[in-house]
Amino acid sequence: QGYEGLVEGGDNIKQANWLSVSNIIQLGGTVIGSARCKAFTTRGGRLRAARNLVEHGITNLCVIGGDGSLTGADIFRSEWGGLLEELVRDGQISEEVAQENSRLNIVGLVGSIDNDFCGTDMTIGTDSALHRIMEVIDAITTTAQSHQRTFVLEVMGRHCGYLALVSGLASGADWLFIPESPPEDGWEDLMCERLGE
């Protein structure tokens, strides 16, 4: 469950083995769970996360996420030494345990379907999202043609129109809105004229 799992601990932290990862390759990456974690945005939440990691002897994290997840990882890394000192001071861990876990190694991977990270061709999740969008468009297109109707499809992407643009190109969409290029005044009449044709 992402940082929520780190903060809550318990059964959220478990060792992966061949049995636990069998038959998941065809599933989306969120099979391991994903959650927004308000607690991790506070020092107290990060302190609990540090305690849970130390308890399990974990000093390496692979953080897959977007801006929030990777920013959180950077803050966690920068505070790590101070968090351990606080745990020692509060008597939650010994000085020896703090020394054994003194270094936190983090690898950050951009996992964002938006494909909005500079310096990478395609972020983790983008290809899967495009595949799902095209499956839906294929299904809707048949219905639209048989009923002679116009369908509107909204895709995810927040401030980035990559998914909309690529799926629109691939499906031959008649009209497309993307945040990078807001429509000009009078677009409603132009769109109606185009669709009427």
Compute the average pLDDT. Answer: 91
- Secondary structural class: mainly alpha
CATH architecture of the largest domain: 3-Layer(aba) Sandwich
Helix content: 40-55%
Distance between the termini: 49 Å
Spatial strand arrangement across the major sheet: 1-2
CATH topology of the largest domain: Rossmann fold
Order of helices and strands: HHHEHHEHHH
**How many structural domains does the protein architecture include?**
2
Largest sheet: 2 strands, parallel
Large-scale geometry:
elongated
Pfam families: PFK (PF00365)
Cofactor: Mg(2+)
Catalytic activity: beta-D-fructose 6-phosphate + ATP = beta-D-fructose 1,6-bisphosphate + ADP + H(+)
Pathway: Carbohydrate degradation; glycolysis; D-glyceraldehyde 3-phosphate and glycerone phosphate from D-glucose: step 3/4
Structure description:
The longest helix is centred in the middle third of the chain and has 23 residues. This protein has 197 residues and is mainly α. The protein has two domains: 109 residues, Rossmann fold (3-Layer(aba) Sandwich), CATH 3.40.50; 71 residues, Phosphofructokinase domain (Rossmann fold, 3-Layer(aba) Sandwich). It has a two-stranded parallel sheet with strand order 1-2. It is built from eight helices and two strands. The N and C termini lie far apart (49 Å). Helix 6 packs across helix 7.
